[in-house]
Automatic annotation (TrEMBL), chain A:
<dbReference type="InterPro" id="IPR001268">
    <property type="entry name" value="NADH_UbQ_OxRdtase_30kDa_su"/>
</dbReference>
<keyword id="KW-0520">NAD</keyword>
<dbReference type="GO" id="GO:0051287">
    <property type="term" value="F:NAD binding"/>
</dbReference>
<keyword id="KW-0511">Multifunctional enzyme</keyword>
<dbReference type="Pfam" id="PF00329">
    <property type="entry name" value="Complex1_30kDa"/>
</dbReference>
<dbReference type="GO" id="GO:0005886">
    <property type="term" value="C:plasma membrane"/>
</dbReference>
<dbReference type="InterPro" id="IPR020396">
    <property type="entry name" value="NADH_UbQ_OxRdtase_CS"/>
</dbReference>
<dbReference type="InterPro" id="IPR022885">
    <property type="entry name" value="NDH1_su_D/H"/>
</dbReference>
<dbReference type="InterPro" id="IPR037232">
    <property type="entry name" value="NADH_quin_OxRdtase_su_C/D-like"/>
</dbReference>
TrEMBL record, chain B:
<comment type="similarity">
    <text>Belongs to the complex I 20 kDa subunit family.</text>
</comment>
<keyword id="KW-0560">Oxidoreductase</keyword>
<dbReference type="GO" id="GO:0048038">
    <property type="term" value="F:quinone binding"/>
</dbReference>
<feature type="domain" description="NADH:ubiquinone oxidoreductase-like 20kDa subunit">
    <location>
        <begin position="70"/>
        <end position="180"/>
    </location>
</feature>
<dbReference type="GO" id="GO:0016491">
    <property type="term" value="F:oxidoreductase activity"/>
</dbReference>
<protein>
    <submittedName>
        <fullName>NADH dehydrogenase subunit B</fullName>
    </submittedName>
</protein>
<keyword id="KW-0004">4Fe-4S</keyword>
<dbReference type="GO" id="GO:0008137">
    <property type="term" value="F:NADH dehydrogenase (ubiquinone) activity"/>
</dbReference>
<dbReference type="GO" id="GO:0015990">
    <property type="term" value="P:electron transport coupled proton transport"/>
</dbReference>
Amino acid sequence: MSLEPLDSPDADVIPDHTPEELEALLGDLVLARDDHLNAPGFVIRPDTVQETLSILKEQAGYDHLSLVSAQEYENRYESIYHLKKFDDPTQEVSVVVPADKDNPVSQSGEAVFRTADWHEREAYDLVGIEYDDHPDLRRILLPETWQGHPLSLDYDMNQPQIAALPAHVNPIQDHHRDDESDTMFLNIGPHHPATHGVLHLKTVLDGEQVVDVESDIGYLHRCEEQMAQSGTYRHQIMPYPDRWDYISAGLLNEWAYARAAEDLADIEVPEYAQVIRTMGAEMCRIAAHMLALATFALDVNGDFTATFMYAINDRERVQNLLEDLTGQRLMFNYFRLGGVVWDLPEPREEFFSKTRDFLDQLPGNIEEYHNLVTSNEIFQMRTIDTGILPPEVAKNYGATGPVLRGSGVDYDLRRDDPYGYYDELDWDVITEDGCDNYSRLLVRMQEVEESAKIIGQCVDLLEDWPEDERTIQANVPRTLRPDDDTEVYRAVEAAKGELGIYIRSDGTDKPARFKIRSPCFSNLQTLPEMANGEYIPDVIAALGSLDIVLGEVDR
Amino acid sequence: MSSEQQPFITDESRVVTETRDSRMTGQGDRFNSRLREAFGSSPFILTKFDKFLNWCRGSSMFMLQFGIACCSIEMMHTYAVKHDLDRFGSGVPRASPRQADVMIVPGTIVSKFAPRMKRVYDQMPEPKFVVGMGSCTISGGPFQEGYNVIKGAEEVIPMDIHVPGCPPRPEALVYGVVKLQERVANGEAAPVTVKPYELEQFGDLERDELVEALVDQIDEDELVMRYNFADSP
Ligand code: SF4
């Protein structure tokens, strides 16, 4: 683990505040305290959102709006702004904004944090809270013509709906000419090989240059939050996380839910299980980054043969290991609250030696990728200095993961907000300063090597683990009923970035509100910043370097 | 041929006799290929044109490159090394529906995507075949209860083969595709047994409450799909 130097030369470091100091700082803005398990919470009036957020951002250093979660209670609506610091994500604070039941209007936080834009649109779409001063309050996940707000309390799940097919806008009709410009409208997707699934990009082109690009999402909105809210904590929720980020990143996602729910129900995970979790999760990260590399090379080089096949081949190897471990190739369902479902496969020696074989040949393969891809001149021309995302912009949009680290921001929850066994192991957080498409790819490739390091250390540990201390699960009651009205927000470092879960319990065995903070959702939001003014092929490169997965964007 | 060095053979009966004779007496084996042995005494393979075409179709299928959800990851593995669907003559993904014969539907279909999928399907030239991959295309799979999820792809387009699983392993998908090829070669595929949702013009919809609520938002000529989640199987 690399530690921050103690005498940081940063002059304007903002000191940490205790909750009481924060309350004093906010003064009259605070109506009441509503603490969550992870953070102090301050209740404020719905028309003081911008003021509160900007005080917290400017004066207290909470520069990361991680999530906006909205929900409806019997007597009110509520939006919660979960704030963190990029320097130290264990410093958290929640801003709770109740809104009137009959007229749920609340001020938008978009002016302070750009990322609030999409989060609030989603809250409007699914829950029905309206945000004043929002630049563009429309539905985001559901079709424009949808009736009602499906996560509000009185929504009838069976009511009929109509979805329109707005004819793909006719480019000739929209062709706009005047003295300065000559623009054309171009649809990319939702069925398109370069959009990595069902994403729809509405682009306006001036010649070959992009004037504007808008992502239209929601083509894979599978009601993940509703599904989680109708499942019991103990067993019924765990299969779903596998399907958020389905690029084999299942265990990383399961960990997000496990971490939040274990904190909520106060469950200790045995160390042995933590090591297995860490190992499995890093295998998933390798598989996920391999696919990112494969599809990126496909997008940029149009190379369906070499790089793609090589990367898929490496994925097959990891997937074989994961299949040995969990029993499934893709949808693992391997974590349980309080541990994992079963121990390593027998004979253990065989599993270890297979894993070691994989780790041994990985450096050679990575060398090969560097020869094939990163040192390829054409590839470099396409990716270096294209899709620039400056660090401040990335932070403002709440980008995380390789996207943020490719912009030189040193932020990785595995180290900064440790969980699992990461803080006992020796590995580094990778950052690159290029801020371009190339850096993001380099970050991913080096992260694969770091993951391999972690797996190697886990294998060593597991090999020597005394036989009578191999507890794979803590003692967890058959039915979990966390206390009424407990709220928690917890995040882990998934393949694409910070994957967080907000849960509110209501005393039953099912969550009353389950909100997913998807890293891809925030990362995708940065696309216009990277693409506007660039050429159209660079949009494709930028999109590929973001490595989005629509299952997680739309949930 | 005789030794008289005729430039043309004018007597047709002679040719027939000669050919047959030479075959029967074993003088020339020009026509006695393996294939001939398999097909009997005539030098021509007699088959129905339909049958022949079906065989061609089944032996060379162009897939639509079409990814929706989690199942598409396994679908990519099916195309790529190790599983290599190309071994069975059906591994060339086409990015344009106009060039594709088969659509593998790999994932969950939600209300916003269904009209698009219908449209892509309509753009494929006849004859076209559909393989449904995964539980989601059968019934909505794990998301069946979702307010936004279409309960099976068959609600939208006709399907030929269902491959169950969540996700099906690549081997299962290979099996499904090969089964489809078999059916196509036997001329059994694609009876349209369901009445799928149609894209209708909004103006043609029955004037119920929902339609009334949307009249000022949707153009009369706009193509729409109407979902009745309660009545879905
Ligand atoms: S069947 Fe399972 S794996 Fe396939 S798309 Fe549906 S949820 Fe994903």
